[in-house]
Amino acid sequence: MTSRTRKRPSSARRNIQIETFSPFVSGGRLRLVQSQLHNRSTDDADAILCISGIDSRYNEGTTELFNYLLFGFFELRKKELEKSGFEEEIIDDIIILIKRNEVHVYCNPINYHYLLPYVSHWRNIRFHCMTDSEYEDEEAAEEFKIHSFVAMVTNCRKIGIPYSTSGSVHSFDKMVVEKWPIIQAYALDEYTGGGFFTMKHEVVDISSAVHKIFNEVDPTSLELLITEQLSMFERQWKTMLITTDMEMLNNSRQIQEEKVCEALKSYYKHGKVGSETAVDRQTRPFVLFGTNTKKTVMESVRTGETTVNTPIMKAGVDGDIPKLMVCHGVCPNGPITCGRTYFYTGFSDPLSGN
Questions:
Q1: What is the C-alpha to C-alpha distance for residues 341 and 25, in angstroms, rounded to an integer?
Q2: Residues contacting 51, CB < 8 A, separation 6+
């Protein structure tokens, strides 16, 4: 049995492991994306093009928009897709073209069954998909994909592409897009009569416009925020408090801000791997003792302009023990932040008798 003839998955709603998923929420996300086509920030683009997998050289910006519209399809169902027995190139063989009042979806008869519960309720949706028997001919399947792509973008003067992710913004390069396999195939004489894609269509980067909608709260984003991001954030915060208690018991006079903040900073930095641009413009986690909690110090540490690592015994007024500690945590991939002020109880040093 070949990889193209394995058992197809059920397209039932029960396979979507998100409690708050519904046609209403899904349609709302699509309308938010379509609304950007009426926004000047997209340069009056006629359509938004998303190409998945190898055909876009695994562009992360388009993958991010796919996961938004398809509720984490390529992330949350990764294990299930891997167990299906189908090759990755078959599963992520998807192209979506979003226009103001309609949506075109190219897929194959295998991933169609995965996609159906996510998109079947979209208004004015048109599928470009072969039958099972037609798809057995690999050469014919490849030609069908190219012809479908050409038909999808016909009459689109200006096409927007979500080139960069919200966590890592890159400068837009049309020549990079021109090297995407499906875009290269567009230039072949037998499909369009020759001519580069970026010459026949004006291609613009609409990343910044699309990124704004990712912060919109809907029932599903709230569910994932509470069940995934909040629980992870809470664990790191508890680790920070446990570290503080242990340091206070073992070496209370030498405890430093960096040591207390280690859990929050490690969590933040790990979540921002590969997203240096986002790190530069976001607030950062910090812990400050006593006199370091002044507004000027707090602002410089929050933005990453400076770092502070003062032993607790040197952060009091006139050499006295500080009375408080300010902690600030930041979720690396979400809107969660938390700031708390903790007040110390009296210190006891058995060696000095105080």
A1: 38
A2: 59, 62, 94, 95, 180, 182
The contacts of residue 274 (CB under 8 Å, 6+ apart) are 167, 168
- Beta-bridged to residue 289, according to DSSP, are 325
Q: How far apart are CA 348 and CA 354, in angstroms?
A: 6
Residue with tokens 């607030």: 283
C-alpha distances (whole Å) from 226 to each of 25, 74, 221, 232, 290 are 17, 21, 9, 10, 33
Query: Can you spell out the DSSP letters for 141-161?
Result: HHHHHHHHHHHHHTT-SEEEE
User: Quick one: pLDDT at residue 240?
Assistant: 92
Instruction: DSSP letter for 326, please.
Output: E
Length of the chain: 354
* Cβ neighbours around 289 below 10 Å, total: 25
Opening angle at CA 243, ends 241 and 244, nearest 5: 65
Q: Which stretches of the chain score pLDDT less than 50?
A: 1, 277-280
pLDDT, position 128: 96
pLDDT of residue 162: 94
Q: Name the H helices within the chain.
A: 23-35, 60-69, 73-76, 78-83, 88-91, 111-119, 132-135, 138-153, 174-178, 181-186, 189-192, 197-200, 207-213, 219-224, 231-251, 257-271, 276-281, 295-302
For residue 42, what is the DSSP state? G
**Per-residue model confidence (pLDDT) at position 87:** 83
Check if the beta carbon of residue 165 is closer than 8 Å to that of residue 141. Answer: no
**pLDDT at residue number 279:** 44
Q: Which of 197, 209, 221, 225 is nearest to 169 (CA)?
A: 209
Q: What is the DSSP track for 180-218?
A: SHHHHHHTSHHHHSS--HHHHSEEEE-HHHHHHHTT---
As a whole number of angstroms, the distance between CA 251 and CA 197 comes to: 66
